[in-house]
Specification:
Bound molecules: S-adenosylmethionine
Order of helices and strands: HHHHHEHEHEHEEEEHEEE
Strand order of the largest sheet: 6-2-1-7-8-10-9
Number of helices: 9
Length: 279
């Protein structure tokens, strides 16, 4: 028997049990996330939270609900930026918006919205394009701390240069500084940008579909899922979209291997924007 090999196996069992405990106790389901990167983050949590083993973490998680948000900080990745991948927002503005204009009311779902950077980017595009008043945005995530930050709309002033540059590259029609106020090293985005936003704790793994969306944007979320889970999420999007509704995944993800791919036609190949088929 290879002692190193058997040690690795026990560690895998412990991690599986930890994820199982998290699901059974709190209904947070990470069991089908992409294992290599999830394991890295769980190991980092164990080290930084000072646990001797994953089993010790599991025990604490079972008995102390306050462990859950601590662990979620490691298990979910909150890297984001406003107008991230500006070409995506240019495609939304120049190609998708003309279609959306033909509808009297719109529902837009930003799935996995993190701390709100993607949501505010959309809200600004919709304001600049005159669609804001007819739109309801749904901004969802499983991380409640991230959702609270999204609701607050406050970011470090050191991030603004990048956000401004991205906004400009995406075809922004105004100055980003029109939308925020700066004070004490932070910028606070205009509260009117979130007047038509519903923030909601929603999991693409365990929760149900939303109804009749005209546009769903879900970027840099499914990369953390395994193939089965990606398929499940795409099924949820298909169910949630209205006829001819749009699904934007961004350049890193695609529907290529999904069993739901026939529900969609390609709308913008580079930015991986799809349109729900009519039937
Ligand atoms: C890297 S951020 C992406 C943020 C933004 N969409 C972007 O592209 O910049 C990934 C987000 O997905 C969220 N997330 C992870 N698993 C999720 C799930 N099952 N359901 C909904 N959101 C999830 C995380 O909490 C995190 O906020």
């Amino acid at each position: 028997m290879n002692p190193a090999g058997s040690e690795e196996k026990v560690e895998d069992i412990e991690i599986r049990l930890l994820l199982e405990a998290m699901f059974v106790r709190y209904h947070y389901d990470f069991r089908h996330y992409s294992m290599a990167s999830l394991k890295r983050r769980i190991k980092q949590a164990r080290q930084q939270l000072g646990f001797a083993s994953f089993s010790a973490m599991q025990e604490r998680l079972l008995y102390e609900p306050s462990m859950l948000p601590k662990l979620l900080r490691y298990l979910t990745v909150q890297v984001s930026e406003m107008f991230r991948d500006p070409d995506y927002f240019r495609a939304i503005r120049e190609k998708v918006v003309p279609h959306l204009r033909t509808y009297p009311s719109l529902k837009v779902w930003i799935a996995g919205c993190s701390e709100g950077e993607e949501l505010y980017s959309f809200a600004i595009v919709f304001r600049e394009e005159g669609l804001e008043d007819r739109t309801i945005f749904y901004a969802t995530d499983i991380n409640q701390e991230a959702l609270q930050a999204a609701e607050a709309g406050i970011y470090g002033v050191d991030r603004i240069q990048l956000f401004t540059e991205n906004h400009r590259k995406s075809g922004g029609k105004s100055s980003l500084s029109d939308y925020y106020q700066a004070a004490y090293g932070r910028v606070s985005f205009d509260r009117t940008l979130r007047q038509n936003v519903v923030f909601s704790d929603h999991s693409l793994v365990t929760d149900a579909a939303f109804g009749e969306m005209n546009l769903i944007s879900c970027r840099n979320v499914m990369i953390y899922f395994d193939r089965t889970l990606q398929d499940h999420a795409v099924g949820l999007f298909s169910e949630s979209l209205s006829r001819k509704g749009f699904l934007g995944l961004g350049s890193k993800e695609s529907l290529r291997f999904s069993r739901h791919s026939d529900d969609f036609e390609e709308f913008d190949r580079d930015e991986r924007i799809y349109q729900r088929r009519a039937a």
